Each structure stands twice: as structure tokens, then as C-alpha cells.
UniProtKB/TrEMBL annotation:
Cross-referenced SMART domains: Resolvase (SM00857)
Origin species: Carnobacterium divergens
GO molecular-function term, one example from the UniProt record: DNA binding
Protein name: Recombinase family protein
Keyword terms, alphabetized: Coiled coil, DNA integration, DNA recombination, DNA-binding
Coiled coil: 352-421
């Protein structure tokens, strides 16, 4: 006999007047259960509670009992008794009821998930649930736009901009951080770059100015001249400003000119090997060292331990390191030449090839173990083996299967000879003379894990 739970909910007097009262629902559901010869194991009642949310006491109690395996069917008088939200209704049916092998019946709509029609209705319900989610998203977006038009900050208290605090729905000035922001603008107008500003203010205000990126973000943020930026649109804000609009505009003009100069100057382009080179003597990374005058620039890759600037202290491993420095252009070109000369043999090894041969053997053995597990389950269902024997054998087989799957996971990271040949073909079609710097960096990353330098020895660690 199927064990059924009756779920009853009413939220307003109007619903009670329309025949949705607790007693009316309970009576109809009880009669339905008796007619179907169901065993009623509980009546879960939420009186005077809205169906818009899921945190209802009786509903939560019923979910707990479902998870304990005490219920086979959930019965309601009408679909909206379960929830007013299509999204929540679908969640309860799919992720709570059916997941725990519990069917759901709505008496009024003849909705029964144990039937093919009922299962088809779930698909229709999911469409309406998606429409509901989209509508909620759109209402939320429109609400935020309205807040922006009213001049209100969108980020909340946890994301208040540097120089402000979030209080009573409005941004209020943080007097201490306000001074730091004003100094950033002043220093930039005096000719200092964002890296130097971060270094100066990071020393002056420890823990407050942690990176050049913070400085860049502040110098470009219109929040400091009273504007709110939301969804690509700019609105007048209600908050107090403390950067003069003329000063802000001057900073933007200088920023634009410097950005354009950086774009044109080869010496300032991102290094192709940045982040890839390590010092074999002290373990520090290499960085791009730019020296010389504006007219004559010299760019080298050097060990970070040899960098005497304050901002690089955390990158230093040994101040006494004297590892060799390399001309940036020459090192990058020699690395590209080595990549272009790569062969399949250089990217593989006898050991790796043997491992690849083992992949099919392991995959075959995993399938064999899965087959043995399925056969044991079939024997158990037929009553040919006991629960204890089933559990013991399956545990043993699962241990073997898990070990093989871990080994297979390692092998799948090793590329086959065919995959490597395909990768090298991509390299042949790559034009180093015309491709962008970003694409060159991506191509180098495809083949090189890291580069270690020990004076005259430059060792490339290939990425298989």
C-alpha cells in the first residue's frame, strides 16, 4: 500500500471563502486517498502562510520525512497549494520528490508524475519556470536601473568604492580614504605613473594601497565626480564628491596620452616570456628590465632578486643573486626558433608512449569491473545472494575501479602522438611576424611550461 502525505496550505480569507479552507482541502484529499486505497501517513498543514517561498514549517517537515523514506506520494488539492512560484514547484517536484522516488499528485489538475502525461507536464512546467526566472531577472534589472536613475549606489555595503562607506542606502565619505584618493590624483598630475604612486602611497599608508591596479581603477572611476555607472549608462549620484571635475578630466587626458604612447612604443609591450622564466640559482622569477633614455631603450630579462625597487620586495629570493641577464628580443627570438624546430620525438618519451598504450587496457578493465558490479546487483534482485555478500563484493570491486580511474585520469593528461602531431601542425600555420602579442603569448604557453636560467644555460621545460 502506497504511503501518502497530504499537504494543505491556505494564506488568505479570500481563499478560505473560495473553498480553499484547511478543513475543505483536508476532507477532499482524505476522500481521494481512501478511494485510491492509499495509507495516509501524515497531514502537513501551513495555515495563513504565503506560497511564494519555501521556508514553511510544515513543508520543511514533510521534506525531512521524504528524505527519511517515510513517504511514497505527496498529494495536494491544487498545484498552487504547493507553491505560487512555477520555479519553486519545479524544484520541489524534480529535486525533492522525484529525486527521493516520491510521486506527486495534484488532485484538481489531475497532475500525477507516476503517469506518462504527468511526466510530460513536468517539461511544460519547466518552460513556465524558465519564463518566471527570466521575468524575475528582468524585474531585478529594471529595479537596479531605477535605483541608478535615482542616484543610488548599486554595489551595497560590501562593495563600496574606495573613499566611501555604504550607510542608509547612500554612499558616505570615508574621510581617511578620501585623503588617499586626492593624493593619487595629485601625484598623477605631477607626472608619477600608477606603479610609482602605488609604491609611494603603499609605504605611506600600509595596507591601504596594495597594487597599481587599485590606483588605475580609482583614477578612472567617475564615482569621485558624483556619477553612478550602471549597465553602460552614466547617472548623477546622490553621494558627496571630493574630486574636482576639471582635475578628473585632466587626469583622463594624461591617461589617454600615456596609453597611446605605450601602445606605440615597442619597449613597453608585454614581454612574450613574462611569467615563464625562473632563476635556477635562487628560484625567483625573471622580469623585464627597461633602462636607458627615452630615445635609446634597453630591455632585458633579469632575475627579480636583482631588482632594487621597493615594490618588488616580495618577489626577491636572494639579494646576492648574480644570475645572467638576457637581451629581451634575443631571448624571445631564440625561444621562438626552438619552438618552430620542435618534433614529435622532443615532446614525447618512451615512458609516456608506454603509458598511452596502457590507457586502453585500463579502460577495458574498468568496463569489466562495472559489468561485474551490474551482474551482482542482478543476482541480488533475483534473491540469489545476500545483502552482506553483495555489499562485500561491491565494496571490493569499487576499490579496484576507483584506483584504476585515478590512474586513467593521469593518463588522459598525457597527449597521444596523433594529438601532438596535430598540435605541431597548428604551429606550422602560425605566422609569428603578423600575429598579435597576445596570440604569440598564447602559442608559447601551449608549448612551454617554464624556462629556467643558470647563467649561460637556458633550459626549456616543454608542456606535453
Amino acid at each position: 500500500m502506497n504511503r501518502v502525505a497530504l499537504y494543505v496550505r491556505v494564506s488568505t480569507t479570500e481563499q478560505a471563502n473560495e473553498g480553499y479552507s484547511i478543513s475543505a482541502q483536508t476532507e477532499k484529499l482524505t476522500n481521494y486517498a481512501k478511494a485510491k486505497d492509499y495509507q495516509i501517513v501524515g497531514t502537513y498543514t501551513d495555515p495563513g502562510i504565503s506560497g511564494a517561498k519555501l521556508d514553511r514549517p510544515a513543508l520543511q517537515n514533510m521534506i525531512t520525512d521524504i528524505e527519511k523514506g517515510m513517504i511514497d506520494i505527496v498529494l495536494v488539492y491544487k498545484l498552487d497549494r504547493l507553491s505560487r512560484s512555477q520555479k519553486n514547484t519545479l524544484y520541489l517536484i524534480e529535486d525533492v520528490f522525484l529525486k527521493n522516488k516520491v510521486d506527486f499528485i495534484s488532485m484538481n489538475e489531475s497532475f500525477d508524475t507516476s503517469t506518462s502525461f504527468g511526466r510530460a507536464m513536468i517539461g511544460i512546467l519547466s518552460v513556465f519556470a524558465q519564463l518566471e526566472r527570466d521575468a524575475i531577472t528582468e524585474r531585478t534589472r529594471m529595479g537596479k536601473i531605477e535605483r541608478a536613475k535615482e542616484g543610488k549606489w548599486q554595489g551595497g555595503g560590501n562593495f563600496a568604492p574606495f573613499g566611501y562607506r555604504y550607510e542608509n542606502d547612500i554612499l558616505k565619505v570615508n574621510e581617511f580614504e578620501k585623503i588617499i584618493v586626492q593624493e593619487m590624483f595629485d601625484l598623477y598630475l605631477e607626472g608619477y605613473g600608477t606603479n610609482k604612486i602605488a609604491e609611494i602611497l603603499g609605504t605611506k599608508y600600509p595596507g591601504k594601497v596594495k597594487s597599481p591596479n587599485l590606483v588605475k581603477g580609482i583614477l578612472r572611476n567617475k564615482i569621485y565626480i558624483g556619477k553612478i555607472n550602471f549597465a553602460g549608462e552614466i547617472y548623477d549620484g546622490l553621494h558627496e564628491t571630493f574630486i574636482d571635475k576639471k582635475i578628473f578630466q585632466n587626469v583622463q587626458e594624461i591617461y589617454g596620452k600615456r596609453a597611446n604612447k605605450t601602445y606605440k612604443g615597442d619597449y613597453n609591450q608585454k614581454g612574450l616570456l613574462l611569467g615563464k622564466i625562473y632563476c635556477a640559482k635562487c628560484g625567483a622569477k625573471y622580469y623585464r628590465q627597461v633602462t636607458g633614455s627615452v630615445k635609446y631603450r634597453y630591455v632585458k630579462y633579469a632575475c627579480y632578486s636583482q631588482n632594487r625597487s621597493l615594490s618588488s620586495k616580495t618577489m626577491v629570493k636572494d639579494r646576492n643573486c648574480v644570475n645572467k641577464r638576457y637581451n629581451a628580443d634575443e631571448l624571445e627570438q631564440s625561444t621562438i626558433d626552438k619552438i618552430n624546430k620542435l618534433t614529435v620525438a622532443e615532446l614525447t618519451s618512451t615512458t609516456n608512449l608506454k603509458l598511452l598504450d596502457n590507457r586502453k587496457t585500463i579502460e577495458k578493465e574498468i568496463k569489466n569491473l562495472e559489468s561485474q558490479i551490474n551482474k551482482l546487483v542482478d543476482l541480488f534482485q533475483l534473491g540469489n545472494i545476500s545483502t552482506e555478500l553483495l555489499s562485500s563484493r561491491i565494496d571490493n570491486l569499487n576499490i579496484q575501479k576507483n584506483n584504476l580511474e585515478m590512474e586513467l585520469s593521469k593518463l588522459k593528461k598525457v597527449k597521444t602522438k596523433k594529438e601532438i602531431e596535430s598540435k605541431l601542425q597548428t604551429l606550422k600555420d602560425f605566422d609569428w611576424d603578423t600575429e598579435t602579442t597576445i596570440n604569440k603569448i598564447k602559442m608559447i604557453d601551449e608549448f612551454i611550461d617554464k624556462i629556467t636560467i643558470n647563467d649561460d644555460e637556458v633550459l626549456i621545460h616543454w608542456r606535453l
